[in-house]
Fold this sequence. Notes:
The structure holds 2 protein chains of 2 kinds.
Chain A: E1 3-5, E2 11-17, H1 21-31, E3 37-45, H2 47-56, E4 60-61, H3 67-73, E5 84-85
Parallel strand pairs in A: 2-3, 3-4
Antiparallel strand pairs in A: 1-2
Helix pairs in contact in A: 1-2
Chain B: H1 5-28, H2 33-50, H3 56-74, H4 81-104, H5 111-121, H6 139-144, H7 149-158, E1 167-172, H8 185-190, E2 195-202, E3 219-225, H9 229-235, E4 243-248, H10 263-276, H11 282-302, H12 306-316, H13 320-332, E5 346-348, H14 362-371, H15 380-409, H16 414-441, E6 443-445, H17 447-450, H18 454-464, E7 468-473, E8 478-480, H19 481-485, H20 488-502, H21 506-511, E9 518-527, E10 530-537, H22 544-553, H23 559-564, H24 567-572, H25 595-604, E11 608-614, E12 618-626, E13 631-639, E14 642-647, E15 651-658, E16 662-665, E17 668-673, E18 676-682, H26 683-686, E19 698-706, E20 709-715, E21 718-725, E22 727-728, E23 739-744, E24 750-754, H27 756-769
Parallel strand pairs in B: 7-9, 14-24, 18-20
Antiparallel strand pairs in B: 1-3, 1-4, 2-3, 4-5, 6-8, 9-10, 10-12, 11-12, 13-14, 13-21, 15-19, 16-17, 17-18, 19-20, 22-23, 23-24
Helix pairs in contact in B: 1-2, 1-4, 2-3, 3-4, 3-5, 4-5, 7-10, 7-13, 10-11, 10-13, 11-12, 12-13, 15-16, 18-20, 20-25
Amino acid sequence: MSVRRGPDGCLVLEGACPVEDAETLAAFLLAEPGLCVDWSAGTRLHTAVIQVLLRLAPPLRGPCGDPFVARWLGRLQRGGTGAAAAD
Amino acid sequence: MNDLIEPFVAEARELIQSATEDLLALEAAPGDGEAVNRVFRAFHTLKGSVGLFDWPPLLALLHAAEESLSAARAGTRPVDSGFVDLGLETLDAVARCTDAVAEDGRLPPGFADEAARLVARHGGPPAPIVPEPAPAVSDAAAAAAPVPGWAAALVAAAGPAGPGTVRVALRYQPRGDCFFAGDDPLGLVRRLPSLEALDLAPAEPWPAGDLADVFACNLVITVLTAAPREEVDGVFRLVRDQVTILTLPAAPAPARPQAPLDPVVAAILAEQIRGLALSLPAEAEAGHREAAARAAANALRSAGRHGEAAACARTARGGSEALSALLADILAGAGPGGTGTGPGVAGTGPGGAGRGPAPPDPVPAERGASAAPRSLRVEAGRIDGIAALVGELVVARNGLAHLAARAGEAGVEASFVRSLRETDARLARLAAGLHREVGALRLLPLERVFRRFARPVREIARGLGKAVAFETGGGGIGADRTVVENLFEPLLHVIRNAIDHGLETAGERRRAGKPEAGRILVRADRQGGQIVVSVSDDGRGIDPGRIRRRALERGLMPAEALAAMDEAALLDLIFAPGFSTAEQVSDLSGRGVGLDAVRAAAGRLGGRVAVETRTGAGTTIRLVLPQAVALTRLLLVGAGAETYGLPIEAVAEVVRVGRDRIGALGRGEATILRGRTVPVVRLAERLSVEDGPGPAGEATLAVVTCGPDRVAVEIGRVHGHLDAVVRPLTGLVAALPDIAGTTLLGDGRVLLVLDPAALVAGAAEGEGER
Lengths: 87, 770
């Protein structure tokens, strides 16, 4: 499973997070609103997983381990809504 | 078979059904323009679908029907009963084609002649079928269109392009069910080289938070890239219907260099562009646009750019997109007075194609499209498969609960036992939730079956020369798919009976002071966990005396028994096999099936039938049905020559033990299983069934649990298992001890189902006596 509970209670996304992880992630976050998510070890997040993060906006820890997401959707971390752009 | 045929058949059947209903509605109210439109649309859609296949006669027929409906819409063709009849006949023909196509992919033999005759009745030789032209893209119009707001927002975020750089803007709104289809929309975007900007936003406001729609995609992805247009087209070719792709031409060198914008002003402008790109309801949009124009104008004035500020206010009247484009121009340094053409648009796609210079706001159209109910067509068998798996899951979870309890007894470390229990409790909640959801998936509105009656009622009434006002109610109530699908035949039978025997002739009704049209009402009501479907008529009612005479004639019962029966018992005889009260056997009701078939059908669904009547005022027949058909898995166990069902959820295990391990305990017997003394009950003895001697050396014991108590029931052979609907006991067998209910076997025999709680309690009593 690529979504698990870390030792400090934070949810940890690990490796490739396929579409099914969206449900696990949402279930955790809905059961415990405010739970933080450590996405630094997630190497490739499926759109459905990102949609859950966008929708439930949990506090995110660490730069995202998925370079594409870190580059273009890093703003999820700050709850921003504006477009990300090249420098 | 062509894999387009299956969806076509499903869609065609629905369209035929809805067009039939609308034609009937039209007959009742010929002035109903909306109904004409609906029928027209149904034929139009059918024609479009048929166009995918090579079936010229069917296409010609649908085209002719569409033409004649078009004439009806225009008022040049009267909507009378002849018109409705022709429409219904056409639908019948189409329905036969659909069935034939579903069977072997071909139209029925001889259909061409039939179609030609119908085409002639629809208005002579049809006009040639001209395929509707695909919307052509006018390059000139496209080029003149301003950059839409979303693209302007991207440009604003990415900053101006380098001189000579052609960029492509893309707006991708994946279908709601794309995750189910295995798509990863951002996965496509990842394949685009040279990204310059990307935005991700909800397409619609998020629905109220719950788990059900985690897998519904509700995103709009907008992207700006410097990749060549062909490459972008290539990446998104499979989702072409969900994307709008615009090529933004190279920015010309600014003709009139201006002082660069103050960063604060630039940020304010960019913010307005972003705001304008949001999807808003039409009524909120205008206010939002005005506020954005004011904010931008104020910022520009503060920077001394009065000309541009005035341009903002002017342009705002032209719509959000125009305003966005202007702001993007100002940000890019072109300004309204620049000699450059500004970023024009040369592109195709749902959002940008064929627009004139004053484009309509795209928001309302997009809203309308996404407001349509989103649904996913799933084969019913797969839902049943899921339901069965969920049932297994619930049973498997019970095993875990048992394990958790044993771990506690076995002195396993407390913290481990606690987390095992927590996991089990969570699993139990999830499994129960899943069970509920899957059950709800199987619920269908009764409307589905009710609306199929309009047509047969019309025909039955015509055939009998009676006028009938047919009404339905409570169709929104949901019932298990099995119930809904198996209700049509029995209900139709009851309705046919009501029209045929219940309703008087027009003359009789006039004399009785009733309206000439008899009233038939089919309605559903919820009553506790059950659904009551009733068919009422306002006819003559049932005369108990006549039933008594008829039963005597038919030799159903001896005269003295009949004389002793009260009215309710007599009425109940109408459901007895071989009973028919009609003086003449009509060609409608007298088909050799009586209301006994209705009672049997209700029984198969786990329900019952009752009748209520008032002489001269009418009759109501009620089918009381379970809302959900709960399947119970039964272990089929032998006792002597008999077979009984034992609910598997109550069976902890089936073991063989040597007879020497069963010892006398008080007045009963007991054995030791897993370190516990368990009373042993012999099933055949308990049920007073003749039983030969069991195998000498061994006994087969089914360990039945109920709460903390358990009893080992000695059974004969295990004959396998069965998923069945268990009906509670009624009537004569209600008093049988140890029996919880009955179920019908495939061959029509009745299987008695044991009551685990009674077996366990009985064994406890036995112990108590000692």
